[in-house]
Specification:
The protein has 3 helices and 4 strands. The chain is α+β, with helices and mostly antiparallel strands. The strands form 2 sheets. It has a two-stranded antiparallel sheet with strand order 1-2. Strands 3-4 form a two-stranded antiparallel sheet. β1 and β2 form a beta hairpin. It is elongated and about 50 Å long. The model has no long low-confidence stretch (mean pLDDT 90).
């Protein structure tokens, strides 16, 4: 299914109007966070995943702590 998105002026920014049917399918609503990511086909809009965000925070912490070790392993 393809949805048409509208761009609207919101103060000094531009907002995207997403149809309520698409929001319902994603399980998000007003004031929720969604992600816009680049993919080989173009761009994707996906709902946020608290587990993913938490996992990435842990991974980021580990990468910072073991930066030198990871650099040596990458050689």
């Amino acid at each position: 299914m393809t949805y048409e998105l509208k761009l609207r002026q919101v103060g000094n920014s531009v907002g995207v109007i997403i149809p309520k049917e698409a929001l319902a399918k994603m399980g998000v609503g007003e004031n929720d966070t969604i992600f816009l990511s680049e993919s080989p086909e173009g761009y994707r809009v996906t709902p946020t995943s608290p587990d993913f965000v938490k996992a990435m925070a842990v991974a980021d912490s580990l990468m910072k702590r073991y930066r030198n070790t990871l650099r040596e392993l990458a050689k």
